[in-house]
Amino acid sequence: xxxxxxxxxxxxxxxxxxxxxxxxxxxxxxxxxxxxxxxxxxxxxxxxxxxxxxxxxxxxxxxxxxxxxxxxxxxxxxxxxxxxxxxxxxxxxxxxxxxxxxxxxxxxxxxxxxxxxxxxxxxxxxxxxxxxxxxxxxxxxxxxxxxxxxxxxxxxxxxxxxxxxxxxxxxxxxxxxxxxxxxxxxxxxxxxxxxxxxxxxxxxxxxxxxxxxxxxxxxxxxxxxxxxxxxxxxxxxxxx
Length: 240
What we know:
CATH topology of the largest domain: Rossmann fold
CATH architecture of the largest domain: 3-Layer(aba) Sandwich
CATH superfamily of the largest domain: P-loop containing nucleotide triphosphate hydrolases
CATH class of the largest domain: Alpha Beta
Order of helices and strands: HHHHHEHEHHEHEHHEH
Number of strands: 5
Distance between the termini: 65 Å
Structural class: alpha/beta
Strand order of the largest sheet: 2-3-4-1-5
Radius of gyration: 22 Å
Largest sheet: 5 strands, parallel
Strand content: 5-15%
Shape: elongated
Number of domains: 2
Number of helices: 12
């Protein structure tokens, strides 16, 4: 009867733990264990769903970074943002620096942690986001897409600066920054300093307005050091 009722109530966590819980003799302890099992199951299921919706391209954690390879980079300062306070305050994050220093890795590790802490996240590459925006505009679905972009606690825009955008693409990406201004956090990785963002967006005026909004409440971290990927590749060649 109990198993049937749990199935009807869709208490999957309790069902899975029922064999272990059933060994508990005290009534209060039994009920407590039953509820804890369901809570833990739902908590983990929610984390899994947030991770899936975030669409991280890689499963990277802070433990995968060796800070000794780039001792001049303060990875711990970015890791400390895992308390989620910048997200609660709807502030932004920018990791700026050379390729191969762990910018994307840091964004993924930080936001995987934030997913575990209950925040909703969505990952985009800058080029991928612009392509999605342009496609949505062409199909008259832009308003719906913009509403979706507003939903997550944080959106990640990775690799900003690698590819310049068309005038239309630049305007659409500007709209993303403008729409989330003081309404939700944006986390960016870029290989360009702010004064060079005009190379991406084309228009001096549009770039100035975008940077002004983005940096108003932003945590800015600069990663300076040699490329870890390049170093690894050279070591492989040396050992072959």
